[in-house]
Amino acid sequence: MRWWCVAVNESWSWVPRPYLGVWVLCIGLLVSHAVATRRHQRRHPESLDGREGRRAVWFALGVGMLWLASDWPVGALGAGYLSSIHMLQYMLYTLGAAPLMMLGTPEWMARAIVERTHSAAAVRLLTRPLVAAILFNLVLLATHAPVSVDTLRSTQVGNFVLDMIWLFSGLLLWAPVIGPITEWRARSAPARIVYLFCAAALIPMIPGGFIAFASQPLYGTYELAPRVGVSALDDQQMAGVLMKIGNIPIIWAVMGVIWFRWYESEQRSARRRQPVRGARSAAASRTADVTVVSRETVAASGSGRIEPPTPTGADLN
Q1: Is the per-residue pLDDT at 91 higher than 80?
Q2: Does residue 310 register a pLDDT over 70?
Q3: Would you say residue 286 lies in a domain?
Q4: Owning domain of residue 203
């Protein structure tokens, strides 16, 4: 049993080959999250908000995505056989594991991590939308350059480093949108939509198109690997298409959710303002009526005319 996936020159086999390091990492993350949550709930019961179970599910799903992208068969195929699976791993890390784990991380836990690592200033800088977008796409370009892929895929340590870089770049991408520390998010819903579109939908199309339309294989690791049902060039073209448009369903779905929530919030605010405006209009109308009556009374007194009082029913009887 290997510790982490690595490129090999063996023919592909569907015999399961789990990787010990992947299991240790995933189990460690789940146990750490559960222990920290239980300890915090015991020490601070007043902080419970009823969403603890939902966060646990999100975090477990994120770790499940991490396991799926790293362990056999996806991890093995992406490490040394198919560049299209290599690209699928990247998508699973950045668009699957990272946002789900972030949704499962409560604010108190994120603040505790930042405080213990003394990284508040750095995290605040890195989560600014412009900085996060630039760094995310720099990581995308650097980790898909042929020299990087061929170098890192040749060792287990290199593969582990590559996978963790992808995971952290995904956390960086989603921090301005769904980060647990709310004051470090983008300020408005339109800003988050524009940020996601540019950072994760628009810019990746450029390197994706370059990979898809290349006339020859770019990666020696996958060109020389034992074939698994597809030629090296066709496999690379599928990888380029996946980078170019594979993220569109997820990114556009998230942008749609942000837009609809923002729209609903604006509608609720408008409905709350409407009774206030009505009350103000009614008060203004009553004030205007009183003012008119007062002016008429003053005018009548000034002219020497005093209107007789209006007889009531009792006077008539």
Answers
A1: yes
A2: no
A3: no
A4: 20-40+50-268
18-29, pLDDT tens digit by residue? 999 999 999 999
- What is the reported pLDDT for 288? 54
Kindly tell me if the per-residue pLDDT of 305 is higher than 60.
no
Quick check: is 311 in a domain?
no
- pLDDT above 90 (res 121): yes
In a domain, 316, yes or no: no
Cβ atoms of 140 and 65 closer than 8 Å: no
Q: Could you write out the DSSP letters of every residue in the chain? A: --SS----SSPP--S----HHHHHHHHHHHHHHHHHHHHHHHH-GGG--S-HHHHHHHHHHHHHHHHHHHSTTHHHHHHHT-HHHHHHHHHIIIIIIHHHHHHTS-HHHHHHHHHHHT-HHHHHHHTSHHHHHHHHHHHHHHHTSHHHHHHHTTSHHHHHHHHHHHHHHHHHHHHHHH-SSGGGS-SSHHHHHHHHIIIIIITTHHHHHHHHT-SS---HHHHSSPPSSS-HHHHHHHHHHHHHHTTHHHHHHHHHHHHHHHHHHHHHHHHHHHHHHHHHHHHHHHHHHHHHHHHHHHHHHHTT--PPPPP-HHHH-
In a domain, 310, yes or no: no
- Split into its structural domains, the chain has a count of 1
Query: pLDDT, tens digit, for every residue of 183-196?
Result: 889 989 999 999 99
pLDDT band, very low/low/confident/very high, at 78 (cuts 50, 70, 90): very high
